[in-house]
Specification:
- It is a single chain.
- The protein contains three helices and two strands; from the N terminus they run αβααβ.
- The chain is mainly alpha-helical and about 60 residues long.
- The model has no long low-confidence stretch (mean pLDDT about 95).
């Protein structure tokens, strides 16, 4: 998984899952500065209500 792909998916669907949040927290020590800024942006989007924690159903 990559943080950029996760950001695009979360932004387009409006949902981030608990497992994706877990992946972010377990890998944050290895993030580059760009990846850190993307993670911060995801957090701000969660705070603002732009994205929600939930699940995605596969079609």
């Amino acid at each position: 998984m990559e943080i950029g792909t996760l950001f695009l998916t979360s932004n387009s669907t409006g949902i981030i899952t608990f497992s994706e949040l877990g992946w972010i927290t377990s890998h944050q020590s290895k993030f580059t500065r760009l990846e850190e800024s993307i993670a911060i942006k995801l957090g701000r989007m969660l705070d603002a209500g732009s994205i929600n924690i939930g699940c995605r159903l596969k079609s």
